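Study this pair:
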Amino acid sequence: MAKGKKLTDRERGEIEALSSTGMSSRAIAIKIGRSKTVVNNFLKLKDNYGKKNTGGRPKALSSRDERRVCQLVSTGKYSTRKLISTTGLKVCQKTIYNTIRRSGRFTYTAKLTKPQLLQRHKIERLNFGQKVMTWDNQWIEIIFSDEKKWNLDGPDGWNFYWHDIRNEKEIFSKRQLGGGSVMTWGCFAYNGVGSIAFVSGRMNSQGYQNVLTNHLLPNAECLAGENWKYQQDNASIHSSNSTKNWFQVNNVETVKWPARSPDLNPIENLWGDLARRVYANGRHFTSTTELKSTIEDE
């Protein structure tokens, strides 16, 4: 019987990683598509797997050094340059990079961006969650709101796509400052979506109050009933004395919202769905009029 091909460096890394989680040899073999015997042989031999002689150029890093590099990389706090200075290894950045890649445990990816949360913000979020976790019909009475900026050239961060290597690469052309933009305000509640407002220029407290007068008050009871409450974030124009006075004069009760918590607002899901339709197939717009029309149609 012919011998099976040897495990690749990536397969070896996968086996080590899966084995460290307590997964059985049989389960690992099924997951990576190799035989149980091959998996067991590798786990038994580890660093000596596949070695027939000691000839050839010696490895730049020992197995112990490689494990240390991977251990530090797993914290997510080290670049290849910082790994060299921290470990004191006498190797180049390319060697560190290849060691990380061969382990099969890591992919080089951008960090997610989220608001900075101080301890007091975390406490506020926790207290808010504990307060509303038992809510049921109370959610029906809340109108969620937020502003969103739309660029003519599409949203930031949407320039990636799955490239078919048989075709020419697509080119993403972007104008200065995104080619122009449109600012909108919107809201929704249990019974549906409110009217969308297009804001001219930079919005201030007075402009915000005008939006609420023209787009919130006429639709509020239809969206959330007679006892409706209004949700907004803690932007300066939302929490200014002028805006607070407007709420008092118009008998609008607001929901106390924890600072730096856009992820808690469900309207972000609504904006995301709308953005995917507006910018479908990488669409760009030549004018703000065209962009506004598309937003309204969607």
Summary: Residues 19 and 28 are 8 Å apart (CA to CA). The longest strand covers residues 142-151. The mean pLDDT is 85.
